[in-house]
Amino acid sequence: MKNLKRVLVGFLAVGSLLSISTNSLAQFSSNFQGARSVGKGNAEMTAFYSNVGVAYDGESNKIFNNFGFQSGLGLSNLTELRVRYDRFNFNEGKGDGINGLTIGPKFSSESGKFAFYLPVGFNFGDGADKNWMTDPTLIFSLPLGEKVTLNLSPSYMISLEEGSGIDDGLLKLNFGFGINFGDGWVIRPEGGLHYFVSDFDGNYYNFGLGISRKLIKKG
């Protein structure tokens, strides 16, 4: 009975994610960034991997392997333009993979402890509709020492598809650390819990690792 329950949970989870992912932006991963801006003319490149799953009725099941990269370019001392690509491959060959592309500004405070990030994007791939989404995000960074920062980034992903409402959104609570290894390198272990406001009585989770390289202009 327990094994049957797990199979049913996995089936429901994959079915739900397939429906959501092919009709909206599949963005179930962490942010892998802190609140501080890179500064005018500087840049940050980040590669990352996440394990994405679903929890339902006391059971959990891995769904996606998520690979991706993002870049941030400093337009001013406190403003960045960020571009991100995600590839979501279903675990154990359960279906075709999905791609996601987002772009948007990030506005940082002078203290580097708070930022507002507004990515907009769409998914694409075999069987995926290019419906647009936005994911307004708040980023809080708390220094825990000279080389370690705690990053919290709550957000609410909203479909821009005609007929979708605010109740169709995804509440995302991501958290992680930025560990500075010197010479512009930052290791970013992050995870999160995500909740659909309607249509699915469960939650999604992710945990992963990002590696950032800051490119600082000279002179």
Descriptive overview:
The chain has one helix at 2-23, and strands at residues 43-56, 59-74, 79-90, 98-108, 114-117, 120-124, 132-134, 137-143, 148-159, 170-182, 185-196, 203-215. It is mostly beta strands and 219 residues long. The longest helix has 22 residues, at 2-23. The protein contains 1 helix and 12 strands, in the order αββββββββββββ. Strands 1, 2, 3, 4, 5, 6, 7, 8, 9, 10, 11 and 12 form a 12-stranded antiparallel β-sheet that branches. The protein has one domain (27-215): Autotransporter beta-domain (Lipocalin, Beta Barrel). Residues 1-12 have low confidence and may be disordered.
Comma- or semicolon-separated keywords:
single chain, 219 residues, mainly beta, Lipocalin, 12 strands, globular, signal, Outer membrane protein beta-barrel domain-containing protein
